[in-house]
Amino acid sequence: MNKQANLDQIMADIIQSDVCPNLAKTAKNLVFGDGNPNADIVFIGEAPGKQEDEQALPFVGASGKFLSEMLASINLRREQVYITNIVKYRPPNNRDPLPEEKEAFLPYLERQLDVIQPLLVVTLGRHSMNCFLPGLQISQVHGEPKRKAGRVYLPLFHPAAALYNGGMRQTLIDDFAKIPAILQLIRDSK
User: Fold this and answer.
1) Number of H helices, E strands in the chain
2) 51 lies in which domain range?
3) Phi then psi for 102, rounded to 5 degrees?
């Protein structure tokens, strides 16, 4: 089975297992992930928002537009990376995902990462970071790669933070600019 078929199976398993039925009831779509199943980089956000829920694609709203701009700044396109969220259904009124919702979806996210085998996992926001690097403060570790259990994680602020706080925008752009060098270091160490 190829990677895309494996990813499709994980998506089918989420639906069949009825993960977070309360969220599924209030959402329009399952927002599984989008991009290249052979990507070197996977970006992981928190949960879909209104636009994402309507289009069944991650990061297509204002945050997604900024993410696309930052990708372009390091000569990448969305089609070259893989983008997903921890929680695959939009929480009502865009509230933060609950701990039990993140916990319910985490095994499926781990399976996505196992299929894709990225060189680098970029967490977008504290919810995403805390799933993989618990106990760290994003304000202290953003832009610093962390190796854990055979994977390299790069915690970044969520693009939405830059939309609400102009000062954050440059921080995020600066952190994003480190990605090519981090990827090269990972490749060189293989």
Assistant:
1) 10, 6
2) 3-189
3) -65, -40
Q: Which two tokens stand for residue 180?
A: 């090519």
Instruction: Give per-residue pLDDT as tens, 44-70.
Output: 999 999 999 999 999 999 999 999 999
- Collapsing DSSP to helix, strand or coil, 63 comes out as helix
Structure token digits, residue 153: 């994680």
CATH number at residue 21: 3.40.470.10
Distance CA 152, CA 115 (A): 16
Calculate the CA dihedral of residues 65, 81, 154, 112 and round it to 10 degrees.
120
Of the candidates 103, 94, 116, 125, the one whose C-alpha atom is nearest the C-alpha of residue 42 is 116
pLDDT in tens, 112-159: 999 999 999 999 999 999 999 999 999 999 999 999 999 999 999 999
Q: How many residues does the chain have?
A: 190
Number of domains in the chain: 1
Residue 171: count of CB within 10 angstroms of its CB: 17
Q: Which residue has the tokens 């319910």?
A: 104
Tally of CA atoms within 13 A in the half-sphere of 173 that contains its CB:
11
Identify which of 187, 190, 180, 1 has the alpha carbon closest to the alpha carbon of residue 73: 180
Residue entry with tokens 């297509």: 60
